[in-house]
């Protein structure tokens, strides 16, 4: 009976995304917690029938509908190893996947775009087609779906997690590169007929940039954090015309008070969706791409993100909050419009909103006076113990959104504290970039520690009864804090897929991720060896005074199991006890419901016993 709540949580569908068919009659939905893996389902605007299009033992994601309205391009890797294989699946033959590319390919696929006619696709991967081997840099490859013949269109000069897309006329391919500086992004235009490849958007060597096509095939909407070579406090949004080479600015970041986080133009629409942040919380707006006038959205307490129009007066989108898991819905563009649910996860479980824990906003000052913001979840049946839940990235953040792991810990009486330390998105570019002033393992860790101290001072946490956990960079922070903080601040840590030795991590991770380490630490291990050593938790294990539970997915190509092997050897040499939980069939993060069940219970028991 005690774990009935966890059963309900892990049986609650989670909608990861949706795409309408070209004719607008069907919706393909990517969902977790229906099967033991993530799968693609088919429904209509009424949500009356939910048909599984895929059901395999791997997490499957949707890339695109074909123009025939019956076929979809999907893909999955093998147990989280991130070596994606592509398939087609037809709504007329659901659950029958036809392979497009090989299983466990000798490359990491970073992005893929389907030709509008459906006869070919282009994808970005670290692969040398001529010599049949994995490379450091990224190749843009053309794949003919009829003949299965491939050719290389171009290759980046540096490792790059390139994003790629055809325009609707299939005359041009838009793709990103990171050739000029670690973390800096440029967009280029490849002309299919002439094979010309030219840079069209670059606002500085280190500028952050995202871009996507408007449906008219000649204009591109983009978001940049840099203008005239100077990084702005907030992002700007513009529209670029590939023929006139003119830019129309929609949002000027030098004057804005919110941070546009993304902008994209849905297919089959003349609108632009702009997502913005205010103090770590999201809002969205819909803008007419011809008049640039803003369209109203229905008023709602949670965040609404429109995906695509379903008809002239009906849109597909999602809304959510910390006590409302993401609901797929349709609605008109009207302030007084009503949201009609297509898939409401709460309606498919015995959990109600009142059974879930709400969050409160909290701010504090770090050691250098910087104001930091986060969230605190205070359970009804408080057990006096606190879990610090550290997000990954670090270029990410947590806002008022549903999280089944947090809700499970709160149900068991834990207070959960979520700090959005410097380096987090959702506040300003200045705040995001502040982590680079002294690099990973620097002031952002003090942001977390001063947040913990603030909780204790305000009576919201008890010294010596505080544990830390998180995945990826959250796992790294958990390692860092258990080796550096006092026992009163951090008495236990459960790092999940976290870096332990930054040099080893740099050498064994995916090639497109190495520039991220260089960006954050100011160079490679050869250039700044002292920082890679100084900020690696593996060198401070003898300072551990609390308890440690190591969690790792053994297929992880991002933070590889080498990190665990190295730290285990050191822990045993130092005669420091620890616990370990590994998953053979997981990669970078634990995502399968059956494995999440084990993970959540083990972490909750670990903190209950050690705090």
Here the CATH topology of the domain at 357-610 equals: Rossmann fold
CATH architecture of the domain at 357-610: 3-Layer(aba) Sandwich
Q: Give me the number of helical elements.
A: 10
Low-confidence stretches: none
Quote the average pLDDT: 94
Oligomeric composition of the shown chains: single chain
Structural class: alpha+beta
Strand order of the largest sheet: 29-30-32-31-33-34-35-36
Q: CATH superfamily of the domain at 357-610, please? A: Alpha/Beta hydrolase fold, catalytic domain
What shape does the CA trace take?
Answer: globular
What structural keywords apply?
single chain, 611 residues, alpha+beta, Rossmann fold, 8-stranded mixed beta sheet, 4-stranded antiparallel beta sheet, 10 helices
Structural summary, described in words:
The protein has a domain of 254 residues: Alpha/Beta hydrolase fold, catalytic domain (Rossmann fold). 16% of the residues lie in helices and 38% in strands. An 8-stranded mixed sheet has the order 29-30-32-31-33-34-35-36, sandwiched between helices. A 4-stranded antiparallel sheet has the order 1-2-3-4, with no helix packed on it. Helix 5 links the parallel strand 33 and strand 34. The chain is globular.
């Amino acid at each position: 009976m005690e774990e009935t709540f966890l059963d309900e949580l892990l049986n609650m569908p989670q909608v990861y995304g949706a795409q309408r068919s070209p004719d607008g009659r069907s919706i393909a939905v990517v969902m977790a917690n229906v099967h033991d893996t993530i799968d693609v389902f088919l429904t209509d605007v009424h949500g009356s029938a939910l048909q599984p299009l895929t059901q395999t033992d791997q997490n499957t994601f949707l890339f695109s509908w074909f123009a025939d309205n019956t076929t979809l391009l999907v893909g999955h890797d093998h147990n989280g190893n991130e070596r994606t294989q592509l398939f087609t699946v037809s709504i007329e033959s659901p659950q029958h996947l036809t392979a497009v590319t090989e299983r466990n390919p000798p490359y990491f696929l970073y992005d893929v775009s389907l030709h509008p006619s459906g006869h070919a696709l282009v994808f970005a991967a670290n692969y040398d087609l001529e010599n049949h081997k994995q490379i450091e840099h990224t190749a843009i490859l053309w794949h003919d779906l009829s003949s299965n013949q491939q050719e290389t269109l171009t290759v980046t000069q540096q490792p790059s997690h390139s994003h790629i897309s055809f325009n609707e006329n299939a005359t041009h391919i838009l793709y990103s590169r990171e050739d000029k500086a670690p973390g800096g992004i440029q967009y280029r235009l490849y002309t299919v007929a002439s094979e010309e490849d030219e840079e069209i958007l670059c606002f500085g060597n280190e500028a952050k940039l995202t871009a996507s096509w408007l449906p008219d095939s000649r204009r591109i909407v983009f978001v940049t954090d840099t203008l005239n070579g100077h990084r702005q406090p907030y992002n700007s949004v513009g529209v670029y015309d590939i023929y006139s080479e003119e830019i129309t600015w929609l949002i000027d970041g030098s004057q804005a008070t919110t941070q546009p986080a993304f902008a994209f133009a849905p297919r089959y629409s003349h609108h632009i969706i702009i997502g913005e942040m205010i103090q770590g919380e999201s809002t969205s707006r819909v803008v007419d791409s011809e008049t640039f006038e803003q369209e109203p959205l229905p008023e709602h307490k949670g965040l609404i993100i429109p995906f695509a129009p379903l008809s002239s007066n009906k849109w597909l989108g999602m809304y959510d909050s910390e006590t409302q898991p993401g609901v797929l819905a349709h609605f008109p563009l009207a302030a007084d419009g009503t949201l009609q649910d297509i898939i409401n996860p709460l309606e498919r479980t015995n959990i109600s909103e009142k059974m879930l824990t709400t969050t409160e906003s909290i701010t504090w000052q770090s050691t250098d006076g910087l104001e930091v913001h986060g969230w605190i979840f205070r359970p009804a049946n408080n057990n006096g113990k606190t879990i610090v839940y550290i997000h990954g990235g670090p270029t990410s953040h947590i806002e008022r959104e549903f999280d089944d792991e947090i809700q499970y810990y709160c149900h068991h009486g834990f207070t959960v504290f979520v700090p959005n330390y410097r380096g987090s998105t959702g506040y300003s570019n200045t705040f995001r970039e502040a982590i680079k002033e002294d690099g990973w393992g620097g002031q952002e860790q003090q942001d977390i520690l001063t947040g913990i101290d603030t909780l204790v001072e305000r009576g919201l946490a008890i010294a010596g009864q505080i544990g830390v956990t998180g995945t990826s960079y959250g796992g790294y922070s958990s390692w860092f804090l258990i080796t550096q903080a006092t026992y009163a601040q951090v008495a236990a840590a459960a790092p999940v897929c976290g870096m332990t030795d930054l040099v080893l991590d740099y050498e064994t991770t995916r090639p497109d991720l190495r520039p991220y380490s260089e960006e954050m630490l100011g160079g490679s291990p050869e250039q700044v060896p002292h920082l890679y050593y100084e900020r690696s938790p593996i060198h401070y294990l003898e300072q551990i005074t609390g308890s440690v539970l190591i969690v790792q997915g053994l297929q992880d190509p991002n933070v590889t199991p080498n990190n665990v092997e190295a730290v285990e050897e050191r822990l045993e040499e130092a005669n420091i006890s620890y616990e370990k939980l590994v998953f053979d069939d997981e990669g970078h993060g634990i995502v399968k419901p059956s494995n999440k069940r084990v993970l959540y219970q083990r972490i909750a028991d670990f903190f209950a016993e050690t705090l």
